[in-house]
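Most newcomers find our protein records easier to grasp once they have seen one. To make this concrete, we reproduce a full record directly below:

===
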Amino acid sequence: MKKTRFFYGLNYFLIVLLGWLLLFGKAAEMNKRSEESAKREQKEKKKETDENKVQQREPSIRVLLTDSSWQSCYHQSVTIEQKGKEHTYTPDSQELQNDSLLLDGGTDGIAIPSIERAQNPPVYYGTLEIKKTAQGLLIINELSLEAYLEAVVPSEMPASYEEQALMAQAVCARTYAVCQIQENSLEKYGVDDSVNYQVYNNFGADKRTNKAVQDTKGQILCQNGEPITAYYFSTSAGRTSTDEIWGADRSAAYLKSVECDFDQNMPWSSWSVEIPWETLEKRSGNLEGSGEFIGLQVIKKNISGAVTGMEIVTENKSIQLEGEYEIRQFLSPAGCLITEKDGSIVNGSNLLPSAYFELNVKSGKAVQIQGKGYGHGVGMSQNGANEMAREGYGWQEILNYFFKDITLEVVGN
């Protein structure tokens, strides 16, 4: 009987002990879960705080909108559409009696039918300020930097390009914009929406380019902690240039001349055009001190092969043009037909496609130009970047190929 009671007591003790162990185990498990939950909550709060800090640091940008020809920032009238209503403003409008009017784009934006773009009508987000001046009306669009980039990237690079190329483009565009903000380029007006800075809102936002902007959010190219001027252009002539092409005594430390064969099958990798003698006669007549046009010749090229010096020979004197832009402007193929590498024929514009060319002067008849590449040739080749992405290069590798000794930093850090 005693043995039975002993074993009964022992069993009871073991059952109670097991119960306590189970309770302690459950309590420990609940405590662990509670700690993990607290850590997750803390992590989420930190992430939210960090995101808020980034949002607070994110700069805004002011963009001066040019007219339909992209040539002038002055408008004789401005027509807007908002919330289904259309309104036209002129310098005499009652709303502009205090010289300016500020409009909030809200979530739907403000359309401006009086400005023609590839997307018609263009829609603008953020705020629009219409300002009266003696020359006409100015339109200033102010918005966040990231929203600005969502309308720059598809306007500067086709949205159909490779994802890694679009990301490289987004970082270049963001870096370039930050430099302009820091330099306060147009003083109180910021930048304009043309090729003078970066083309903005010619094409509307696209989900692929939006993703490229979002996936690289805030990231810019720096050297020694300072943002670089991240130049880019369409197609190389087989080698990129540095800013010496614009007359710099010494190239910027982050720029380098590199071989670029990636885009050599693109239509603009080589081209030809013929400019009538009469056209060049008229242009030389506009040069100070010139006489009858006799001819022209290349007198200087930089290390990458771009023409940086050209001599215009006239009856009275010889005139030297220096710098790739001035030379490309004088040799503008406007009104002429350009033949691309693949045989395509396109209309010429106000600038020669590039400064990488050879001249064949047919005195009294025409000047034949054999050229390579499209754009100034400094920094990143956009078509080169796209072909690199197709070959498996990542966006960081692309940027490191075209720029040297750079680091990636976040805007505001």
User: Anything to note?
Assistant: The two ends are 82 Å apart (CA to CA). The longest strand covers residues 136-144. Residues 209 and 257 are 28 Å apart (CA to CA).
